[in-house]
Amino acid sequence: MEMDIGISKKDRKAIADGLSRLLADTYTLYLKTHNFHWNVEGPMFNTLHLMFETQYNELALAVDLIAERIRALGYPAPGSYAAYAKLSSIKEEQGVPNATEMIKQLVAGQEAVVKTARSVFPAAEKAGDEPTADLLTQRMQIHEKNAWMLRALLSK
């Protein structure tokens, strides 16, 4: 059955493509944050272990919201590591960096997600896609706050 939600197929495709990049960034950041939660060491262990857990749990919920929005627009959501590797602006960590480097990488990751979300906003706004605009606004608020909180740990 043909979809008729007041957004053209071309606009829905552009938005879904942008959301697919956001999904890939979010999932990659989830994986990196979970990895760092497992492997963090040092004097800030407990603080970071708990903070990373809070953040990866939130990211796990976010990937579902983003994927379901892509589906609501009529397109398949990417769901493989190979797809995420092609779409994500965040690079995976192959080793186990020290705690300070973990924080720096997660700040960069949080900010990367904000930039990706912000890049999708014009297409959603142009199409009058308020549900996507709302999702993007919420994601940007969360990631900007997380970046700030992580960055505060680096202050001397």
TrEMBL record:
Q: Does the keyword Transcription apply?
A: no
- Keyword terms: DNA-binding
InterPro entries, A to Z: DPS_DNA-bd, DPS_DNA-bd_CS, Ferritin-like, Ferritin-like_SF, Ferritin_DPS_dom
This entry's Gene Ontology molecular function terms read: DNA binding; ferric iron binding; oxidoreductase activity, acting on metal ions
Q: Could you confirm whether the keyword DNA-binding appears in this record?
A: yes
One Pfam family hit: Ferritin
**What residue stretches are annotated with the Ferritin/DPS domain?**
17-156
Family of the protein in this entry: Belongs to the Dps family.
What's the name of the protein? Starvation-inducible DNA-binding protein
